[in-house]
Structures are given as structure tokens and as C-alpha cells.
Amino acid sequence: MKVSLFITCLSDAIYPRVGEAMVRLLAKYGVQLDFPNVQTCCGQPAFNSGYWDEARATARTIIDAFEDSDFVISPSGSCTYMIHHYADLFKDDPAMLERAQRLQAKAYEFTQFLVQVLGVSDVGAVFNHKVTYHPSCHGSRLLGVKDEPMQLLQGVEGLEFVPLPFAEDCCGFGGTFAVKMADISGAMVSEKVDHIKETDAEVLVGLDMACLMNIAGNLRYRGEPVRVMHLAELLYEGVTQR
Amino acid sequence: MSHASTATKPKTVKARADLALNDEFLRKAVKFTTERLRLGKKNASEEHGNWDDWRERGRQIRLHTIAHLDYYLNLFVDNARANGVHVHFADTADEAVKLSLAIAERKAAKSVVKSKSMVTEELHLNHALEGIGVEAVETDLGEYIIQLAGETPSHIIIPAIHKNRYQIAELLSKEAGETLEPDTQVLAGFVRKKLREKFLEADIGMTGCNFAIAETGSMVLFENEGNGRMVSTVPKTQITLMGMERIIPSFEDLEVMATLLPRSATGQKLTVYMSGITGPRREVDGDGPEEMHIIIVDNGRSLQLGDPEFQELLNCIRCGACLNACPVYRHIGGHAYGGTYSGPIGAVLTPALNKNVGEWDDIANASSLCGACYEACPVKIPLHDMLVYLRRRKVERGHGNRAEGMGMKGFAAVAGNSGRMARALKLGKLGQKLVARDGGIRLKIGPLKGWNSYRVTPELPKQSFRDTWKTLEGELRGGLQEMDEATRDRMARIVQERGQGGKGGGHHG
Amino acid sequence: MANSREHEAWLQELEAASRVKQRTFMDGIAGKLKRPRVTEAPAHPYRGAPDFWREMEWDEEERVQRFTDNFKSVGGHVVRLAGMEEASRFIADKAQEMSAHYILRQQESELDALGLEAALPEAQVSVWNSDPDTDWKARAAEADFGVVLADYAVAYTGSITVLSAAGKGRTVSLLPTVLMAIIPVERLRTRLGEVLTGFDQAEREQLPAGIHFISGPSRSADIENDLTIGVHGPGIVYAILVG
Q1: Per-residue pLDDT tens for B21-35?
Q2: Does some domain include residue A220?
Q3: Is A124 among the domain residues?
Q4: Same domain, A134 and A98
Q5: Do residues A233 and A156 share a domain?
Q6: Tens of pLDDT, residues B208-222
Q7: What would the mean pLDDT of A30-39 be, rounded to a whole number?
Q8: Domains of chain C, first to last
Q9: pLDDT band for position B508 (cuts 50, 70, 90)
Q10: Nearest chain C CA: its distance from B398 CA (Å)
Q11: Mean pLDDT of chain B
């Protein structure tokens, strides 16, 4: 059984600690992850901006990279959902379409894999902090990852969960949107951080490093000492503290 | 009436949004109202239950009707005529205006009272009527306020969402010739009295149309104030302007729309008034219009037919739920979109109705593609996908931004190959040495200017994940746990079922 | 109208143009949909509400309760009375209480039987469309009370349905300050669909010009989302359930 890690470019370049936490946590369940070194980016920046030829080029790389995998696991709901768009990219190319659909069927976001495939909703972690959770839009709305992270958080001993007001609102990242429409995006992330402050949480946890980078960037800009973590990091840290 | 405000509007969404972002009141007002509306919708849909089944049903009815629009629209027209309605067709806004003016002139009308209609906003009909000396009076409270201000609606169902009671009191005081207290009851009371006179003396009542029922030739209006009933009952002549896609087959189908529309719009179980109007007054009736016209308007709608990416736009029932759910709309308000329709639906509908790629402005860029609009939509229109299709078409037709196009080519070259990506990363790490402090970059120049005006950018770590992989893998290989048998079996089963065409595992909830 | 013949001719001219345009309009739609014109009714497998919904039916007590709750929740008033005699007394009492002088009612035998004229000797009670020389719209506009008999009511949405006819003016439920709607309890249905499907089943020719569902007093939230009652339609609405 070949279970491959789709690290995503952001976790690869900026947040390797997220990939490491995932790898170490899954190893506890006997999952030996494989890492195809040829993988790159899912192509979402180009796809969302309307540059589909360019998106197709990266999609091909990803499809090639995971051709032989049985499961493909990623720390991002957004990048996982991007794989669902490969069918749009190759709708006029039957051979590629078939490969794209095969990849889609085996692509999982990290918590989906943990809960749905491994059947784990309590990793036995301890985490004595006040935590709030931001559900990223693509993961929760489009990929439908809603219950899994909540189950996993509920299983953590000592964790005090505070619901985030207007949690479902977008943090304002949106890829190139944050650059093209910087002021609107800035207003959105500022509002998100206002809500985080309302919770008094010490830790903000999420499932997508792009959104978390955005939020963490604003928290730091405003000098707010909230720690920002991917759920995989929180769970792994909680397991090692046991 | 002043129309100057539209002439001085900045040209781009970005510039208009900047204006809105600097308007503290506007942001607060829009935020307050949209939050209330979306909470109302959430409560109403949860209380009703099985909401996704209803959405799916609504979607199917709309898909079916639009897929057979020639049949149903034709049936509607034949039935409406049999009911005594004079039916007209307008391919363009111009034609619709000409028809409306011709009727007004023929009737020697001095005044027209109007209930809320987004189609007439598309046509700028009030302006045209005034041009031939006919007074056009908006009678929906919000529309009336906007008309007095010489503005356009900034929300599909709450047109004056951006105005506060003080601004409204000022406008209405001018109209009243006396100072009115900024009290909602006082202001609404004045409008009731003032417009009551207008209803009674108007020659023509003009309405939009929420739904038109093919099998009976009836037109249906949803409203809360009673002005829709007024304009379709009191004046001797009624003119209804309807988009050609407003059709549903039957009254039975109306139950589904009546379940979805008010709940999605305001969280109501039903609007205070839902009226089905089937032709002009019968001969024996004591009231109702003597003459009734329905003008069926295309104005770019048919361009969506047969376009697999945009046909579903015609399913829209104009509830405004996508505006209330949209975080971008909440911050910039409706006027920033620069068209008749605002919010996510406006961002797609405006360019789609115009099919004018070169002038698409940057309207489709005003979205983070968060999908809140899709989730809110009672007929499940994938607006977030459509925004991407718009962006793609703009690029494909050579109207993309050149710098961005070059950037994307570069992106593809780098992201299409892991070796090049690793080298690019190395360059980045070298470059950041000049600008990073304490693990963060605060520089506000170049591409980082906008981003870093609100954030600190994280520094790239010394080693990327792929740099550490070999070590990590080696370390873990030794101490790997044995996978338990049940999990192993489950995984094998998932892979096997997938091969047999079963649904992939970790997908849509 | 002196030029009515001329007007008729003008309308006919428009109609001729419209009929020509109708064909090109529909052909245009079919062309864009890339198929021939559809001229036979297509199968519509998703007609109306989902099946599970059609099975819902409340007993009379629950219908009354739900209707009452819904109607009150939007600011309407609901009373339940044993018979028409009590209804007459209720309306008369309310008229006295609110000093209503002008009362306009629909021309229906059930409302004749109310005997409002006798119960309110000081008020002017008029009967819709009972005399061809009266300006009935003006009567409705000046009325304090409009009294109507509901054709149906719907518990799930808290709605009253009124249909127009010679003796049943649309303005009677619209222009007066207060609306008094008498609802015989047996006309109260559970779901909206029960009333709506009736309009499909009736022949098109049988439909009245105006079908109105009224779910409470007229309202608006257009000023700072602050609820205002009685913007254009009646601001006070009584649903009088009888039986």
C-alpha cells in the first residue's frame, strides 16, 4: 500500500514543520509515507487567475508524481480540492481526464485520511491550552471537511476549545486576491483577527497553511501573541507531551 | 433628479472599493445588515429543515425550466395573452425602454408608480421616463430613498443598505418641506402618506416579476410593504417588466420557490405579500388594472443559453443571499461593483450579460473565491467557479494583464518542474537575507507592498521539507509501528472499491 | 374614451408585431440551446415540493396553533371565535375601541350575515362594488377597517389567501388602515402547496385576476434594518378564526 505525501509548495518552502508533524504522527499508525520528489505546486494560483494552460502544466506534474500511489495525503484542503479541478482542466483530453479522476479518487486532506481511512478520531494527545479553530473555506465548504477536525480536537485532553465567532468567514487570503485586492483582503484579515482576539485563545489552529500564514501575518503585524498552528502540529506536539 | 453620482465614479473595482473601505459608516452599516440577514437565513433554513433537499429541488426546477425555456416561455406567453395581457418582447434594453415609453405616451401618462424591479434598473427606465416628461416614482421605501438621493441600489433586496437614518431624514425632510426626526417610524409614516397620494393619482403602475407561471400565464410578486400590490391594483394600466428567465412551470413549483426565496432573502417564512396576478381585471371586478402589459426582456440573458459554464446563472432567483454571505461585499458595499447587480451574483452577471470581455474591468477579481456565495445560494449556482471561468476567458481572449501573464508563465515553468522550483527557492532564501528581521519581512515595496501593509511575511526556513525528507525518512523507518489489521483491510477495501468505480473516499461531505 | 377605437387598433398593431417577434424569440432560444424547438410538454420529474414534504399534514388543532404562532410572530393578531355572531361582535367592539367610522367589507353572503350595519349604527359600513356609481377605490382608501372573508389560510407560513371577484375587491385587503380577515377554520390548510396546487387544477379561465397571500401587517426594514410596520398596506391585521 503506497501512501504518498503531497506536501504542497507552501508547507514545503515555508512550513516544513507541518509536513514533519504529519509524517511523524502517521508513522504512529504504521503509515509509512512516501514522498515523490518530483512533486511541485497544485497549480491553483494559475488556475484561479484564469491561466489554465499554465495550470495544466503543473497539474500534469502532480498527476505524474502520484501515478502509482494508493492514497495521496495533503496538509491542505484547498490544494486537495484543486485536484478536483483537474477534471475541468482536462475535460477535452480523455486520457488525461481519466488519470485526473483517478488521482481525485485517492486524494485526501490530512484529517479526512486520519478519521475516514485510519478510523482515528482521538490520537491520545494532551494540549493544555485555550484553542480556537478557523475552518478554511475550500476545505470545509468545497471539500466538505467539517466534522473531522472537530472530532480530533474533542479527543485532545486538556484542550479548552473556544468557538471562533463568524468562523466560516473567509480570512481574506484567496491567493493572488491578497495581492491584487490588497486593501479588501487586508480588511478581511483584520476582521478575522478581531474575532480571534474576542475568543481570548492562546492558539489558533487550522488545516491550511495559506490561510494560517495570512492570519499569522496580521497577528504579528498587530503584535498579538496568538500562536498559529496546523492541526497536525498541535496533535503531534500533544502526543509527544504525553 | 441628479445622476451625477454615477458619472464621477472611479473606473475600477479596486478604486471604488478603496472609497468604500474608507467610508467607516458604510462598512459598518453594510456589515450590520448583512450579518442580520444571513443569521436570519441560517435560522429560517435550519428551522425549516432538510434545506439541502429543498435547494436541490429548487435547482432541478430551475435547470429543467431553463433547459426547456422555449417551451415554457412560449406557453406562458400564449396563456398570458389568453388572459387578456398584452405581451411584448425586447431583445435589448433599448427596445424595452421604447416599448415602455410608447405605452406611457399612448396613455398620455403623467406619472408612473413603480414597485421594486431590478430589470428596470438595468434599463435605467426612470431616467428615460423623465426624459419624456413622465414622473416615475419608486414606491418601495428603500428605492424611494435611493431615488431621492439620485443613486442606484447597492443591494438587491435592501437598496438603501448604505444609508443611515440621519441621511435618510435629511433627504425626506427636503421632500416634506419640514424637518423630520431621524426616527424610523416618523420617516416611514411620511413616506406612507406621501406615496399614498402618488398611488391614487398615477396613470401607470409598473412592476418587476419574481416568477411567471407558464401553465396559467400568471405573474407572481413577492414583497413586504404592499407597494407591489398597490401598483398592480390601483392604476388603470399595469406594465410588468420581466427577465425572460423568470419562468417556472406551475403553481406547484411556486411552493418550492416560495420556500427558498423569502428564507434566503430575509429569513422570513413567506414575504408579507405574495401575489399571483392573472391578467387585467375581469369585467365584473371593481378594481385592478384595465389594461395590462408584460414586456419580456432578454438584454444579454440569452447569451448564457447553451454556454455550459454560465447557463446556470439564469437559475438565479434574486434573493440576495450571496451578497449577505460574501465577505468582500460586506467590506466594500454594492456600489463598488459598478453595475446594476452587485455582490457575487453581480460580479458574474454583469460581465456575463454584456459578453464584452475586453471591458470586463477587474470585477471578477473582487473575490477571494471562498465559496460562501455558493453555499448560500438557494439554487446552488456555482458562482465561485464562474468567477474563475470569467478570469480564464479574459486571459484566453488576450485581455489579461501582461505582467501577470508573464508571471504566470514563469510560475508554470517553475512549478512544472521540481528542480527549477528548488532553485527558485534557493534564490528566495538568498534575497531575503537583505530584508528579513527576526524571522519576518516587513518591507512595503514592490509586490509585498499591499500584503505587508497588513501583515508580516514569514522568513523562509533554512531547509525546505524536501531538504529534510531523506533524514526524516531514515529516522522513522527504523521505529515504524505495525499497522493494525483492521486498518490495513479497510485501506485495501477502499482501493479495491475505487477500482470498481466506487466513489472515492475523502470527498464531498 | 373617445379614441378607444384608435387605441384598440394600436394594441392590435402591437400584438401583431409581438406575435412575429414571439416566433423569432423562441427560435432564438432553441438555437442557442442547439436543438430544435420543443413544442410538446417535456417530462418534469421534479415538479413541486419534495415527496417527503407532501406527506406532512397537521390536525385541526395543530393547524390553528401553528397559524396563530406564525401570524403573531410577525406582528399580526389572531383570535379564535365560536361563530360568525361572535365575529360580528368582535369587529364591532374593535371598531368602537379604535373609533373606526368607515368600514368597507366584501360583498359575500357570509359577511352579509355578520350584520355589521346593525352592530355599528354610528359607523358607515359599505359593501364593495354594491353600487356602480361609487368610486370604490376611494372608499377603500378612506376606510378605517377592511373586512374580508379568507378563501384559504395556510398554517405553516401563517398566511391568509384572498381571491378577487366581482364582490371581492383587491383594495379591501390593501388600502384600509386595519384589515379584519375572517377565516372559517375548515379553510385552514397545513402547507402552502395545498392551496397552490388548487390553482393548477382549476382551469386557467377560472383563475381570478388577483390571488393574494397575506402573512401579517405590511412591513419594511429598509431604514437601518429597523423594522417598520404599516408602510403601504394595513399596519394592523386581525386574523379571526371562526369555528
Answers
A1: 888 888 888 898 999
A2: yes
A3: no
A4: no
A5: yes
A6: 999 999 999 999 999
A7: 95
A8: 1-42 (no CATH), 51-242 (3.40.50.10420)
A9: very low
A10: 25
A11: 92
Q: How many domains does chain A have?
A: 2
Q: Is residue A21 located within the same domain as residue A69?
A: yes
Mutation target among B240, B252, B299 for the C interface, most CBs of C within 10 A? B252
Cell of B324: 449577505
Q: Which residues of A touch B366 (CB under 8 A)?
A: 181, 184
* Residue A187: closest CA among A202, A174, A204, A198: A174
- Stretch 112-171 of chain A: residues touching chain B, C-beta under 8 Å: 112-113, 116-119, 137-138, 141-147, 166, 168-170
Rounded to whole angstroms, what are the CA distances from B220 to B223, B251, B279?
10, 10, 11
Give the C-alpha distances (Å, rounded to integers) separating B437 from A225, B21, B336, B455, C185: 17, 31, 37, 14, 77
Q: How far is B4 from chain C (nearest CA, A)?
A: 24
Q: CA–CA separation, A98 vs A107, rounded Å? A: 14
Task: Write out the residue range of the structural domain in which residue A169 sits.
Answer: 130-240
Domain termination residue (choose one: A117, A143, A161):
A117
Consecutive H or E run containing B86: strand B86-90
Pairs across B and C, CB distance < 8 A: 290
Q: CB under 8 Å to B178, separation ≥6 — which residues?
A: none
Alpha carbon distance A129, A214 (integer Å): 22
| pTM, entire model | 0.95
Question: pLDDT-derived band of residue B345, with 50, 70 and 90 as boundaries?
Answer: very high
Which of A117, A147, A167 is the C-terminal boundary of a domain? A117
Of residues A23, A27, A1, A25, the one with CA closest to residue A12: A23
A111 and A187 both lie in a single domain: no
pLDDT at B322: 97
ipTM: 0.97
Model pLDDT, residue B504: 53
Residue A123 lies in a domain: no
**Same-domain pairing of A161 and A226:** yes
B19 vs A: CB within 8 A: no
Reported as a single tens digit per residue, the pLDDT across C41-87 is: 999 999 999 999 999 999 999 999 999 999 999 999 999 999 999 99
User: Residues A172-196: pLDDT tens digits?
Assistant: 999 889 998 999 999 999 999 999 9
B146, B233, B379: best to mutate for the C interface, most C CBs within 10 A:
B233
Quick check: is A125 in a domain?
Answer: no
